[in-house]
């Protein structure tokens, strides 16, 4: 029952999280950027979603109405129109605004925590939990081996008899 | 009740200590972040030569400068505009620096109009040895400018050595910029003498 509940919760959460990044809303008007080639247009859209506005911190170029974001959108448009590859545009921005300008930071010593931090936390957590579980299991096994003393054994039997008697009277009453 | 006296693992302190250590580290990290300015981005251009450009003079549209004007002596490249209130705040201090002999080149960044920018210089004083007029902000993008004011320190080879975001005032100059400027100037003089001997 409880397991079923957790499984259901887990899967619904997973579904929500998987779909979350899909519907990125565009706060700015992109009508001005016209392309003849749909592939170039798709590249342009990808880029302005992936490049970050240096002025507005946590908005993509596609999402910000800051003047600088518009300038950089124009620059991206110009470059994509002229046939630049995705990497060329990203390199252009990163060379001027640093790794900050791209929402996918490169793997470097200074960014390693972003890449390995989450995995590290999972490993630490799993280790801690399994260590604890193993410790509990070992303790339980030890307790299981323990023999009851004669007095405890006698008390256990007395309690069991009492319980059985109680049950007996309960069922009689119910009938 | 069974007491756990016999089988205490030597690892148990690690299990208690690791989360504590991780927590302390995290607190330190976040505390540092709390007092740092997230809008201050490190410039990707520090250590690189100034980008190539062609820009007109602010007073004379027909006069075109290239990046060569930023070479030959240590100087400050100050990005400013009349729409920028902080630029107004720092302007008086730039006047003082210029009077003290510091070479400052202006980069007028996407100003409303040339007339407005010239009017500003005529009324507030002109601390700049020359002023570049970047109407579209294209050259500013080449410099990785994301706001105004910004001040770049450029050595006599035309290499960008430092970028300051925000206003230049007495405190910033004394604590941050002046030591760098002195260093650049000392390097420049040493090379001048070495070349002359």
UniProtKB/TrEMBL annotation, chain A:
InterPro entries according to UniProt: C-type_cytochrome_biogenesis, CcmH/CycL/Ccl2/NrfF_N, CcmH/CycL/NrfF/Ccl2_sf
Keywords: Coiled coil, Cytochrome c-type biogenesis, Heme, Iron, Membrane, Metal-binding, Signal, Transmembrane, Transmembrane helix
Signal peptide: 1-27
Keyword Coiled coil set for record: yes
Coiled coil start-end: 142-169
Gene3D superfamilies recorded: Cytochrome C biogenesis protein
TM annotation in the entry: 113-131
CC per GO annotation: plasma membrane
One GO-annotated biological process of the protein: cytochrome complex assembly
Domain CcmH/CycL/Ccl2/NrfF N-terminal, first and last residues per copy: 22-159
Family: Belongs to the CcmH/CycL/Ccl2/NrfF family.
Biological role stated in the UniProt entry: Possible subunit of a heme lyase.
Identification of the protein by name: Cytochrome c-type biogenesis protein
Provenance organism: Pseudidiomarina taiwanensis
UniProtKB/TrEMBL annotation, chain B:
Regions that span the bilayer: 12-35
UniProt topology in membrane: Single-pass membrane protein
Top-level division of the source organism's lineage: Bacteria
A UniProt-annotated Pfam family: Redoxin
Annotated keywords: Cytochrome c-type biogenesis, Disulfide bond, Membrane, Redox-active center, Transmembrane, Transmembrane helix
Swiss-Prot/TrEMBL GO biological process terms: cytochrome complex assembly
Gene3D superfamilies to which the protein is assigned, alphabetical: Glutaredoxin (3.40.30.10)
GO CC annotations on file: outer membrane-bounded periplasmic space; plasma membrane
GO molecular-function terms, A-Z: disulfide oxidoreductase activity
Keyword Transmembrane (UniProt): yes
Subcellular location: Cell inner membrane
Domain Thioredoxin: 44-182
Family: Belongs to the thioredoxin family. DsbE subfamily.
Protein name per its UniProtKB record: DsbE family thiol:disulfide interchange protein
Organism: Pseudidiomarina taiwanensis
């Amino acid at each position: 029952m409880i397991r079923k509940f957790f499984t259901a919760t887990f899967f619904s959460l997973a579904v929500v999280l998987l779909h979350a990044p899909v519907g990125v809303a565009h706060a700015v008007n992109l009508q001005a950027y016209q392309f003849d080639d749909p592939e170039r247009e798709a590249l342009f859209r990808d880029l302005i979603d992936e490049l970050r506005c240096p002025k507005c911190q946590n908005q993509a170029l596609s999402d910000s109405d800051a003047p600088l974001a518009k300038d950089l959108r124009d620059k991206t448009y110009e470059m994509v129109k002229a046939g630049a590859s995705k990497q060329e545009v990203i390199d252009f921005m990163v060379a001027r605004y640093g790794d900050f300008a791209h929402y996918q930071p490169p793997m470097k010593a200074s960014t390693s925590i972003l890449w390995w931090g989450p995995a590290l936390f999972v490993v630490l957590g799993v280790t801690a939990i399994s260590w604890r579980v193993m410790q509990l299991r070992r303790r339980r096994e030890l307790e299981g081996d323990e023999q009851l003393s004669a007095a405890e054994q006698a008390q256990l039997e007395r309690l069991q008899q009492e319980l059985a008697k109680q049950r007996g009277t309960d069922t009689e009453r119910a009938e | 009740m069974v007491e756990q006296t016999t089988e205490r693992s030597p690892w148990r302190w690690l299990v208690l200590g690791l989360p504590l250590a991780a927590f302390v580290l995290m607190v330190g990290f976040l505390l540092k972040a709390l007092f740092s300015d997230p809008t201050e981005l490190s410039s990707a251009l520090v250590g690189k030569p100034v980008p190539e450009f062609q820009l007109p003079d602010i007073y004379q549209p027909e006069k075109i400068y290239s990046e060569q004007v930023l070479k030959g002596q240590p100087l400050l490249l100050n990005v400013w505009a009349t729409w920028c209130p902080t630029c107004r705040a720092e302007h008086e201090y730039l006047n003082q620096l210029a009077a003290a002999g510091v070479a400052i080149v202006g980069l007028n960044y996407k100003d409303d109009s040339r007339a407005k920018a010239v009017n500003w210089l005529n009324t507030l004083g002109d601390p700049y040895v020359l002023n570049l007029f970047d109407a579209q902000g294209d050259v500013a993008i080449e410099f990785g400018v994301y706001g105004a004011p910004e001040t770049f320190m450029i050595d006599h080879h035309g290499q960008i050595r430092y970028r300051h975001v925000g206003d230049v005032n007495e405190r910033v100059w004394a604590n941050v910029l002046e030591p760098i400027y002195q260093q650049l100037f000392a390097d420049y003089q040493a090379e001048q003498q070495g070349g002359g001997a």
